Amino acid sequence: MSTSWVSPFSLPGIWLKGNLHTHTTRSDGLYSPEKAMAWYNEQGYDFVALTDHWVHASGRTWEDGILSISGAELHGRGYHMLTLGITEVPDRTLEHDPITLARLINEQGGLAYIAHPYWTGQTSAEIATIPGIAGIEVYNAVCEAMVGLGHARVHWDELLAQGMRLYGLAVDDSHWRHDTQGIGYVMVRAERADEASILEALRQGHFYSSTGPRIDDMRLVRDADGRLSLRVRCSPCRHITFYACGPLGRRFTAPEGRSLDGAEYPLREEQVYLRVECQDDAGRTAWSNPIYIADLDMAR
Question: What distance in Å separates the CA atoms of residue 98 and residue 101, rounded to the nearest whole number?
Answer without folding.
Answer: 5
